[in-house]
Amino acid sequence: MNHKDMSAVIEDKLKEINRLLPKILKEFNHRNIDEFMLEVRKLTAFLRMAYLNEEEESQKAVIPPLLKIFTRYVRVIQNIQLQEHRTFQYITTYMADQPYEYLKLLNMKKKYWQGEAASLMEDNNFDRVKDEVIKRMPRKIHASQIRKFSLSHLQNLAAINALHHETQIHAALSILRDLLYLWDYLNVESLFWGAILSKDGLQTIVQALEEFKNICCGLELMQPEYLAKIHDEKEKNLLSVFQKSLLARKNDIREKIRQELNVLSKEIYQGELF
């Protein structure tokens, strides 16, 4: 892939990111935020592949600060929106009363980060980001580099063993997201792992890993610093039961993921990779 083709990919992804920016700042709709986060992840994955052979730290791919900071703010907002959604799902399923104090706390935190995001982007957009990224792009991505990228990701995935720690599961998500988002560039059919894992199969595993990570983020919003601010005893009890249900779901997903990734790792080791 030459520099012109790479620039076209970057321009396309940043055009979509820029298109979503005013929509997000207008109302912070969760669909626009979800779409924005997806486009940023696709851009990041592409840059990681493009800069794989760059040895000097100063030449490695980096998301420009403005986009990086805004994305961090938006991710916080997205986590809160997901937790609000899970809370409403739970009380609807079990016909429970709304936890008004907790929802108010979440809304206050959400409003704060919406304000931070809006302030950051006042009189700003990502046009300069595009110019900065394209300027730093390597001249070419060779086919051998693309193959090296996919195989190194699979090696890293196979090296993640028991998945006892959340950081290992999140690392597996990052690896598999890259492979999913770059599927069309990786020429999977020419690599042995194309026979091991289909794009649909990869999507299924990524979705499970994303649910696990989202629940982890939701549980962070149920730490004592939040629940200690709840004064209503009935609401405290409700949130305690809700928290336990999230922990149970998290553990169920962890076990499912562990089994699927253990099978995948064995197949990788049995393939021609090693």
Structure description:
- This protein is 74% helix and 0% strand.
- It is mainly alpha-helical.
- The protein folds into 2 domains: 141 residues; 132 residues.
- The longest helix is centred in the C-terminal third of the chain and has 38 residues.
- The radius of gyration is 21 Å and the shape is flat.
- The two termini are 27 Å apart.
- The mean pLDDT is 87.
Helices and strands, with pairings:
Layout: H1 3-27, H2 30-50, H3 65-93, H4 100-120, H5 127-136, H6 143-159, H7 166-181, H8 199-220, H9 224-227, H10 233-270
Helix pairs in contact: 1-2, 1-5, 2-3, 2-7, 3-4, 3-8, 6-7, 6-10, 7-8, 8-10
Features:
274 residues; mainly alpha; 2 domains; flat
Oligomeric assembly = single chain
Overall mean confidence score, pLDDT = 87
Low-confidence stretches: none
β-strand amount = under 5%
Helix content: over 70%
Largest sheet: none
Radius of gyration over alpha carbons?
21 Å
**Shape call:** flat
Instruction: Say how many strands there are.
Output: 0
Q: How many discrete structural domains?
A: 2
Q: Ends: how far apart?
A: 27 Å
Structural class: mainly alpha
Our count of helices gives: 10
Q: Which sequence of SSEs, written as H and E, runs from N to C?
A: HHHHHHHHHH
